[in-house]
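Exercise 7. Given the encoded structure of a 505-residue chain, write a plausible sequence.
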């Protein structure tokens, strides 16, 4: 059905809504339509497009003055469909992550609520705009993203940032026109005090400002403006607005679920956060290389293993181990990997034809025994998934000192696994840090089950905003941002999946 240039998208929920209302007009209460229209205009604050919610057609009818019966019906339907669309996007997001990422399994419903009842209560609310705003995530991170959006739209409206001209590295002691532009550029975004924007010398104050900017861009904070720093500084303000918008969309995918105890792995930010309503613990992590991407999905941590063995996954066997063994027959011994047959017996690797070995026809497992050199370290955290991905310790501690930490084959290496274990087990009498260390010191492999499973979400963010408003733009490690932005700016559509037991919207 079309009204003017717009299509009514809700083909099931809207008929239910009007049927329960006896097919009467719904938007007759004074101020209700104006409240809905205010929420539509306010969709921009969420990084959404108000035109997705019939803004031009509603505006046309509201401005027409006295409406005839047919126009009143049209306006009522447009308002109701706009409410369904906007509420849906604030709750679930406009973009369907499953279309972009086949690994994503974060589909949600609206708990046990009746969607029709939710819509009716919203229409009847004293403040309709406020009732609609309540559909958005209430997590403080979402509000910080929104504040960043306002700020960077302001930068874009003022003409953006002064671009720093290309050229050789800029370092302390340098002077000249490019340094003068650099000062203005850093002052524009707040890394350098406005009072220090003038001048053409690279002094100690400017060096500290460069380091602050580098830290915000996820770069090594060395105080020298090289190619990577120059490129980050010269990203247009409008592109930063889009980066904030697409991460607001990602926030709508997951932040409704961030309540109670939850482990969230920020893949692009190389950090793990443990929530207990608020962040209670953060530690650095190492994630998959761009060609061995850590998948994004949700599960629940159910148990951990002390002194784990490591059985080489088929993908690593195929891509890494077999080629290495063909080049160096001493590779298995150096890595302390044993060959195990189907009966669980060890096989002498010297008796195997490694030149002919292929991962798909390799009838053995390669296993690394527990110990300080085990690839999983001394502890791993297990949550059911089809990717053979888990959290674990690592002997390669030096990697946590890197700014960009994408070195694994997909699993997540945790810098402080013992602290995470203590918090997840939540049993200070039986499983203090000292008790865990003593159990690990025995060298025995041991499984410890959590009192209750703790949800875990592996998520991909390219934005962070601190409580003080400092905005961190991360590198799009896996080049996922463009597809999200294209979908966010694309045509409106509903995801055709059941919502609270209903076939479709």
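Solution.
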């Amino acid at each position: 059905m079309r009204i003017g240039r717009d299509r009514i998208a809700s083909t099931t929920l809207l008929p239910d809504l009007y049927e329960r209302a006896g097919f009467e007009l719904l938007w007759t209460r004074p101020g209700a339509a104006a409240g809905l229209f205010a929420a539509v205009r306010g969709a921009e604050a969420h990084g959404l497009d108000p035109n997705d919610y019939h803004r031009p057609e509603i505006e046309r009818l509201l401005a027409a003055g006295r409406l005839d019966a047919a126009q009143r019906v049209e306006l009522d339907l447009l308002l109701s469909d706009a409410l369904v669309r906007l509420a849906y996007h604030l709750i679930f997001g406009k973009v369907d992550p499953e279309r972009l990422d086949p690994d994503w399994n974060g589909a949600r419903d609206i708990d046990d609520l009746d969607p029709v009842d939710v819509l009716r209560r919203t229409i009847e609310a004293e403040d309709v705009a406020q009732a609609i705003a309540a559909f958005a995530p209430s997590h403080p991170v979402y509000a910080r993203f929104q504040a960043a959006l306002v700020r960077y739209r302001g930068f874009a409206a003022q003409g953006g940032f002064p671009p720093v001209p290309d050229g050789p590295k800029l370092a302390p002691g340098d002077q000249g026109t490019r340094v003068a532009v650099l000062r203005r550029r850093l002052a524009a975004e707040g890394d350098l005090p406005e009072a220090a924007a003038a001048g053409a010398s690279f002094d100690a104050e400017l060096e500290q400002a460069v380091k602050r900017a580098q830290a915000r861009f996820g770069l090594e904070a060395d105080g020298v403006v090289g190619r990577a720093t120059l490129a980050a500084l010269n990203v247009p303000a409008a592109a930063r607005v889009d980066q904030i918008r697409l991460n607001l969309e990602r926030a709508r995918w997951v932040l409704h679920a961030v309540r109670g105890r939850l482990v969230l792995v920020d893949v692009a930010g190389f950090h793990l956060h443990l929530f207990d309503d608020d962040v209670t613990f953060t530690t650095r992590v190492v994630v998959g290389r761009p060609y061995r991407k850590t998948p994004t999905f949700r599960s629940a941590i159910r148990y951990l293993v002390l002194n784990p063995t490591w059985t080489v996954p088929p993908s690593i066997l195929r891509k890494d181990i077999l080629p290495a063994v063909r080049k160096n027959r001493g590779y298995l011994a150096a890595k302390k990997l044993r060959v195990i047959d189907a009966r669980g017996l060890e096989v002498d690797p010297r008796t195997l034809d490694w030149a002919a070995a292929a991962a798909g026809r390799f009838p053995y497992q390669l296993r690394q025994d527990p110990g300080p050199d085990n690839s999983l370290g001394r502890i791993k955290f297990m949550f059911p998934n089809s990717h053979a991905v888990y959290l674990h310790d690592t002997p390669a501690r030096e990697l946590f000192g890197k700014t960009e930490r994408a070195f694994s084959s997909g699993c997540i290496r945790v810098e402080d696994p013992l602290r995470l274990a203590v918090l997840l087990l939540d049993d200070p009498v039986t499983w203090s840090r000292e008790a865990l260390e003593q159990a690990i010191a025995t060298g025995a492999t041991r499984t410890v089950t959590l009192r209750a499973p703790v949800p875990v979400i592996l998520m991909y963010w390219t934005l962070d905003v601190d409580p003080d408003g400092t905005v961190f733009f991360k590198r799009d490690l896996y080049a996922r941002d463009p597809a999200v932005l294209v979908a966010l700016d694309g045509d409106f559509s509903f995801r055709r999946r059941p919502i609270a037991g209903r076939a479709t919207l």
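Remark. DSSP finds 17 helices and 17 strands in the chain. Students should compare their own answers with the one above.
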